[in-house]
Design brief:
By secondary structure, the chain is of the alpha/beta class. It has 5 domains: 2-129, no CATH class; 137-259, 3-Layer(aba) Sandwich (Rossmann fold), CATH 3.40.50.300; 266-426, Helicase, Ruva Protein, domain 3; 452-582, Substrate Binding Domain Of Dnak, Chain:A, Domain 2; 584-739, Roll (Hypothetical upf0131 protein ytfp). It is 45% helix and 10% strand. The protein contains 29 helices and 16 strands. The strands form 4 sheets. A 5-stranded parallel sheet has the order 2-3-4-1-5. Strands 12-9-16-14-15 form a 5-stranded mixed sheet. Helix 11 (187-200) links the parallel strand 2 (177-181) and strand 3. Helix 22 runs antiparallel to helix 24 and helix 24 (493-524) packs antiparallel against helix 28. The longest helix is centred in the C-terminal third of the chain and has 32 residues, at 493-524. The radius of gyration is 30 Å and the shape is globular. The two termini are 24 Å apart.
């Protein structure tokens, strides 16, 4: 990221990068014209909207119109394994420079944008700017002095202490180094330790500075008072801290900073574990062969549990920090249970690992379901077979238990450095999701570092954006008129749902209208620009929804342009309901609070049938009909539409879940009928219990209503595969995407 920023800044100073194009790369754009997608079969709606947004830029004004002419050329880029190196079709390859080509890559294949940025930096600055720097302590030490603190910025899962102790040994300072872990009450002891070391020319190592924020001002004073002429030349101050806003900026600016990344991938994790084991330990069990087989299984499970995090919500809703401690206690218990029981107690092993040692860290029920499903593959009788394979390709497999540690390490060294999604039980598309998320995270980080700018004509970009939004936002609903037309009735709970939704949307519309009016005045200088309005202006500039709107809005991950369009669609959904009566099919994504709508559906049935609402559950039926074909309200229950499937797709002909197509990350779900039934028992097999979430982050918190801020309800979808297959795939239904 730093190399790319450096390269871009140099080119901006030479006027080689247009600022409007730079802004598009970072934040995307807002489509002005709406043209039909010319390649629905392979081009996603997100990509086409991005192309329409790019077409608003001067150099790309003809891109959307010329796209159908060059479909084959663009499809070649889309299908390529190296799209960042493919030439653009037609005249576009000559017309656009290397930076402008990155904008087209962002639209078509955002998952390869980072590789594109690397090639861009290499071409402009040279290969050495993208090569990773090795953290050689001797180099850092040589460049330091007695008045320069040496700071380790910690990453989760790393501890540089061992590396520093080894380096101290090499430098013959192991007996001249004092270490202390900072925390409550350790300040005075650390201060006297530092004074002593400055006089005697020793090293001082203060660990976990982030845990002692109250002592940081003292540390600043101590460092500022170091006089290079009076302090021993061999004195060095070593510090470690997690990234924290409590850490003094002056110390960061003065010091030499290093960071060490933890080992990435299953191979690195297996290597780390097996290098810490001995042959004596492997042969100390009463069931040596079984112990070796299950130990390899357990270590693979540990690596998978750690590495699933990189796939975001497809892996786990919440990224858990599993540690070596979790693995070590499981290894001890595995050995103990094998020695104590005559038969292998798989149930006990699965419970202790899945529910206690690893499961104890898991706070989300759907994540626990996933963890236990993964564990089923690794703690089972099948893994004792020497020809057992953990992945379809056979790359990850069980090996001969007669081998010693060297044999196991030789097998581990033969494993791929980069893990394929198959070992995690995920679809190949998961790698695309991971790469896309990584690219957008990098762009978001760059956005946060950007200064504000003005557009031609002296009018700020914020003013132009505000004017565009003001034109579109409708006035609030007339609540009294809606209540008059749809009064609160015992027989029709949907009237109450509608009124509640109208009130919620009105609060949001009032905040939007008021803040837009205030910011126009502030930008013109009529009123003082408050800190809240300053933050709002920055958000508008970066194509992000302002925080003051988010506070009154429904959960959404969409950028500002898409968020406004989505809001207008939601308003239209309610307006049609008010004008035309209860719709035959409900757009569930359009509800501010969909749980209230679901409760209303159950309440209607309960009141009509005289059944207690506590005993009623939903039965599910996926329809072959499209939304446009549904013209009548069902006798019981309701039809819902507007959901998206992630991790799988719905096969309308077969009427069941099936595997995703390549590069198709999300697919539209068919219309679903929710049928209330009293004392319903779910089917034992042939279905996948699929959760519905409001947004792609999936993780939510428990709100004051007792509902999750993200999870809505779970549906039962027919399938030929086992439940575990789709659980490991990370399949879920999503109300709204992030574009």
């Amino acid at each position: 990221m730093f190399a790319f920023l450096l390269c871009a800044r140099i080119m901006m100073n030479d006027n080689k990068i247009d600022m409007v194009e730079w802004r598009y790369l970072l934040s995307g754009g807002m489509p002005v014209q709406q043209l039909a997608n010319p390649a629905v079969s392979w081009l996603s709606e997100r990509a086409w909207q991005d192309i329409l947004g790019l077409s608003t830029l001067e150099s790309f004004s003809n891109l959307a119109q010329s796209f159908p002419e060059h479909l084959e050329g663009f499809k070649k880029i889309f299908d390529s394994s190296q799209p960042h190196r493919e030439p653009l079709p037609g005249a576009w390859d000559v017309m656009l420079d290397s930076f402008q080509k990155l904008l087209v890559l962002r639209c078509l294949r955002a998952d390869c944008l980072i590789q594109g940025l690397q090639d861009f930096v290499t071409a402009e600055l040279g290969q050495r700017f993208i090569e990773p720097q090795t953290s050689d302590l001797s180099v850092v030490f040589t460049e330091s002095s007695s008045s320069t603190p040496l700071i380790f910025v910690l990453s989760p899962g790393t501890d540089p202490a061992a590396d520093l102790y080894k380096f101290a040994d090499v430098m013959q300072f192991s007996k001249k180094m004092s270490a202390i872990s900072l925390g409550q009450g350790q300040g005075p002891w650390a201060e006297s330790m530092m004074h002593d070391a400055m006089e005697r020319g020793h090293w001082v190592f203060f660990q976990n500075c982030h845990l002692a924020p109250s002592w940081m001002p003292t540390l600043v004073r101590l460092i500022e008072n170091i006089n290079p002429l009076k302090v021993h030349e061999n004195f060095r101050l070593w510090l470690t801290s997690l990234p924290s806003n409590k850490f003094p900026v002056s110390v960061l600016q003065k010091g030499s900073k290093m960071t060490i990344e933890p080992p990435r991938g299953i191979k690195a994790n297996l290597q780390k574990t097996y290098m810490s084991l001995t042959n004596d330990f492997l042969s100390s069990s009463t069931k040596v062969s079984d112990f070796k087989s299950l130990l390899l299984s357990l270590c693979l499970f540990h690596g998978i549990a750690l590495e699933r995090r990189k796939f975001g919500p497809l892996g786990f809703n919440i990224p858990y920090e599993f540690t070596d401690g979790n693995l070590n206690i499981c290894i001890s218990q595995l050995k103990m249970f094998l020695d104590e029981y005559q038969d292998i107690p798989y149930k006990v092993l699965k419970y202790t690992a899945g529910e206690i040692n690893y499961g104890g860290r898991v706070t989300d029920d759907w994540d626990r379901r996933c963890l236990l499903s993964v564990l089923e593959d690794f703690y089972c009788p099948a893994v004792l077979s020497s020809d057992h394979v953990y992945s379809a390709s056979g790359v990850y497999r069980q090996i001969d238990t007669k081998l010693d540690i060297k044999g196991y390490l030789a097998y581990i060294r033969g494993l791929p450095i980069n893990d394929t999604p198959e070992i995690f039980g995920l679809h190949d598309n998961a790698n695309i999701s991971f790469a896309q998320n990584e690219a957008f995270a990098l762009l978001e980080a760059v956005v946060r570092l950007q200064p504000r700018a003005t557009s031609a004509g002296g009018k700020t970009l914020e003013e132009e954006i505000v004017a565009g939004i003001v034109e579109k936002i409708p006035p609030p609903f007339d609540v009294e008129e809606v209540m008059e037309k749809y009064p609160v009735l015992y027989e029709e709970s949907m009237n109450t749902v509608l009124i509640q939704e109208v009130i919620r949307y009105n609060k949001l519309l009032e905040v939007i209208c008021l803040s837009l009016r205030d910011i126009v005045k502030a930008l013109k200088g009529s009123v003082v620009m408050s800190s809240a309005l300053e933050l709002m202006a920055r958000s508008l500039f970066n194509n992000v929804v302002p925080d003051m709107w988010k506070a009154k809005a429904y959960p959404s991950l969409k950028p500002l342009a898409s968020w406004v369009s989505d809001l207008l669609q939601r308003i239209n959904f309610l307006q049609r309901w008010i004008s035309n009566g209860i719709p035959p099919a409900f757009w569930i994504s359009g509800f501010f609070f969909p749980q209230a709508f679901l409760t209303g559906t159950l309440q209607n049935y309960a009141r009509r049938s005289g059944t207690s609402i506590d005993t009623i559950g939903f039965d599910f039926e996926v329809l072959v009909k499209s939304v446009s074909e549904i013209t009548e309200i069902p006798d019981t229950g309701c039809y819902i539409h507007g959901l998206f499937l992630e991790g799988a797709r719905w096969d309308n002909k077969a009427g069941q879940l099936t595997e995703s197509r390549p590069k198709e990350l999300y697919t539209q779900m068919a219309v679903i009928r929710l049928i209330p039934k009293p004392n319903r028992k779910p089917p034992a097999s042939g279905i996948f219990v699929c959760p519905i979430y409001k947004t792609l982050t999936r993780a939510g918190t428990l709100s004051t209503t007792g509902h999750s801020t993200n999870y809505v309800i779970s549906l039962e979808l027919p399938t030929r595969h086992t439940q575990r297959h789709w659980i490991k795939r990370g399949v879920a239904l999503i109300c709204a995407l992030d574009y």
